[in-house]
Write a structure and sequence with these properties.
The chain is built from 16 helices and no strands. By secondary structure, the protein is an all-alpha fold. The protein is globular and about 60 Å long. It is a multi-pass membrane protein.
Length: 372
């Protein structure tokens, strides 16, 4: 399913772009065409990483498949989100029906969309904390049925997520998704630049700026929040320092599981938006873009709530591997061997690249000295 969503998304964006041009929605046609081009470039740049990504996703699905209680929690939050969407829809419908200009309606819809996105992100991250806490406990204690497991661990994680950790979750939800998406796109663009030194310098600056923001706003902070109850910034800093000190950050940078899951979420939102836009085209042709974009956002939030269960398992696996690799070895020895081998390869690749860059700099300095 993940491979299908990765390759289908580019085609789907291109088809929607053509349809938008056909119905004379030129702005949306250009927007979807740019999206299709960026998606194609990104997939081409990370095509060699997909086998490892699928391996990690398979193990994450294996983990959550044996934890049906976390799936029930996710379904409960999806139901809550549906109720919120029903209430939110009345507000959005009222904005659309207002007798003000299109500009005013668009601004009001933007404000409503931000509130919807933030609410969806908060609910996703609450599920993230619950699932991460449960997966971490299972790996530490050696199984869900272990006698050392605390009683009712899911309810304990849920209670902590919606009480003491709720402020940190709301704070982190404002930034993590947007920064993560920007990081994926810049990384994909960076890997495709050839010998254009000026462009590479500009992209490197943006990349390092985004990397700095990722240090303070990353999804791995939620695992620390779930397990240790720290504040968001403290958790994000500790998680990043843990990855840097163990070298696991090189493995995470190579893994594209978050991007692949986001592609599935985006595809689900696009399908929802397309269906709504077709219906609106028949009933209210003048409101196709407004209703279609709103429906796409709503669809993305619901699909994202389902995807976050797998993503949380992935983040917990990396945190456990960084803190104590023997936990992963005890859970799945074959997977541990594959992770260790890939980490060794990535660290060797980084070392070779660093030596190459240093060698080029020394050669440049020698040439400058000779010319001087």
């Amino acid at each position: 399913m993940m491979k299908f969503s990765v390759h289908l998304l580019t085609t789907y964006l291109a088809v929607i772009s053509v349809l938008c041009f056909w119905i004379e929605q030129f702005f949306w046609g250009v927007a979807f065409a740019i999206g299709a081009a960026l998606q194609f470039l990104y997939v081409i740049s990370v095509i060699d990483r997909l086998p490892f990504t699928m391996l990690v996703l398979q193990r994450a699905v294996k983990m959550v498949w044996n934890l049906p209680e976390v799936t029930r929690v996710a379904c409960l939050f999806m139901l809550s989100m549906l109720l919120w969407l029903a209430l939110w829809s009345f507000g959005a419908a009222g904005v659309v029906a207002l007798g003000i200009g299109d500009g005013g309606r668009w601004w009001l819809l933007v404000v409503l969309s931000v509130s919807l996105f933030w609410t969806g992100a908060v609910l996703c991250n609450v599920v993230h904390v619950v699932v991460s806490g449960m997966v971490f406990l299972v790996l530490i204690h050696g199984g869900r049925e272990a006698t050392s497991m605390p009683p009712k661990p899911v309810m304990s994680s849920l209670q902590s997520a919606i009480t003491t950790s709720f402020g940190s979750i709301c704070y982190g939800s404002l930034f993590t998704a947007a920064i993560r998406t920007l990081r994926w796109e810049i990384r994909g663009l960076r890997s495709k630049i050839g010998s254009n030194e000026c462009l590479l310098c500009c992209v490197d600056f943006l990349f390092h700026l985004v990397e700095l923001m990722v240090r303070w706003f990353n999804k791995y902070a939620y695992v620390q929040i779930a397990v240790y109850g720290k504040s968001f910034n403290h958790s994000a800093k500790d998680a990043w320092e843990l990855f840097q000190s163990t070298g696991v950050e090189a493995l995470i940078a190579y893994d594209c599981s978050g991007a692949v899951l986001f592609m599935g979420t985006l595809l689900g939102g696009l399908i929802s938006g397309t269906c709504a836009a077709i219906w609106t085209r028949i009933k209210h042709p003048e409101r196709v873009a407004m209703v279609g974009s709103t429906a796409m956002l709503m669809g993305m939030i619901l699909v994202g709530l389902a995807m976050v269960v797998v993503e949380s398992a992935v983040t917990s696996i990396y945190i456990c591997y960084a803190e104590d690799p023997s936990l992963i070895n005890r859970w799945d020895a074959a997977f541990f061997a594959q992770l260790s081998e890939k980490l060794h390869q990535r660290l060797q690749h980084r070392s070779a690249r660093a030596r190459e860059v240093l060698s080029h700099r020394i050669d440049d300095q020698i040439q400058e000295a000779v010319l001087a």
